[in-house]
Design brief:
This protein has 290 residues and is an alpha+beta fold. Helix content is 26%, strand content 21%. The protein has a single domain, classed as q2cbj1_9rhob like domain (Jelly Rolls), CATH 2.60.120.620. The chain has a 6-stranded antiparallel β-sheet with strand order 1-12-8-15-6-4. A 4-stranded antiparallel β-sheet has the order 7-13-10-11, with no helix packed on it. The structure holds 2-oxoglutaric acid and fe (ii) ion (FE2). The site of 2-oxoglutaric acid has 9 residues, from strand 13 and strand 15.
Length: 290
């Protein structure tokens, strides 16, 4: 029997496999060892999977809680390119930004995710946040102030994919909660570009299916925690096959407090905006898009 705190929620020690990932002893020797491994992998290939992060006894709940809200996902198939820029942007012939792909994933917003769920427990846990920040060698990180995009469930239905792209975020924290029956594999090309070099030839080769030697694949299982730097690594989730959707929890954090998405982007992603988005728009001091 799991003990409950006053809020009725289980504590992070009860969610995380603390024998493997000693969140109960912040900065202790075992914590430092895991953080050192994560940092080394992130420096090397921009990706680190902390396998079996969630205790086996909670894996059924993890999957079920997310499957219950998955029907609330918003999304329609969008045409995109790998760079998150307009698909008709003027680019030279052969530039990989001219390759148009279908993005078929849909998001369940934070306000549909129960506060008692495993993913919400993790996302809001101060010690989890401290641990993740330490793995990314950041002094700290903050939950988004955005009531929709801070914590999401990413749902990819059979026949759909999340096509090749670079992230705009410096770092991403995610957790698979349901595997596809077949395919729906996370694939990535470590360091295919650098801050000073787009390396469009290799990117174009991967998009054309000719860059197999550059691609790595992850065999993720529900409850694995994935830490990823997607600015320099082209990545995708290949088309999901079989009878059921693939589900991933996306834990969105920022390096400063108070971050909230623009009304326009929020409407694109979730099909609606809340008063918080409109209020933030009114005080936004710049005209940046995101
Ligand atoms: O669903 C996933 O595993 C990948 C998601 C992703 O790449 C993104 O949200 O940018
Ligand atoms: Fe991504």
């Amino acid at each position: 029997m799991i003990s409950m705190s006053i809020s009725g929620a289980v504590s992070v020690d009860e969610v995380v496999d603390t024998d493997r990932y000693p969140l109960s002893d912040p900065d202790g020797p075992a914590w430092r060892a895991v953080v050192a491994r994560a940092r080394a992998e992130l420096d090397d290939i921009g990706c680190c999977v902390l396998a079996d992060f969630v205790r086996p006894s909670l894996l059924d709940a993890l999957e079920r809680e997310c499957a219950e809200i998955a029907p609330l996902a918003h999304g329609r198939v969008e045409l995109v390119n790998a760079y998150n820029i307009a698909i008709d942007a003027p680019l030279p012939d052969g530039h990989p930004g001219r390759t148009v792909m279908e993005r078929g994933n849909a998001f369940v917003a934070r306000d549909h995710i129960p506060v008692s769920s495993v993913i919400h427990q993790l996302y809001t846990s101060p010690v989890f946040q401290r641990f993740v920040a330490d793995c990314f060698a950041l002094p700290g990180l903050y939950e988004l102030a955005d009531p929709l995009s801070g914590l999401c469930l990413n749902v990819i239905a059979p026949g759909r994919a999340h096509p090749w792209h670079f992230d705009t975020n410096e770092f991403t924290v995610s957790m698979l909660t349901r595997r596809a029956d077949r395919d729906g594999v996370f694939e990535y090309c470590p360091n295919i570009r650098s801050a000073g070099e787009e390396n469009v030839d290799d990117v174009a080769a991967v998009l054309a299916g000719n860059g197999e030697h550059l691609v790595r694949r992850l065999t993720l299982r529900p409850g694995d925690l994935q830490l990823f730097r997607g600015r320099l690594a082209l990545h995708r989730v290949s088309t999901v096959r079989g009878g059921r959707a693939r589900h991933t929890a996306i834990f969105a954090y920022s390096q400063r407090p108070g971050v909230i998405g623009s009304a326009e982007r929020t409407r694109q992603l979730f099909g609606r905006v809340l008063s918080e988005h409109l209020a933030a728009e009114a005080v936004r001091g710049d005209s940046l898009l995101d």
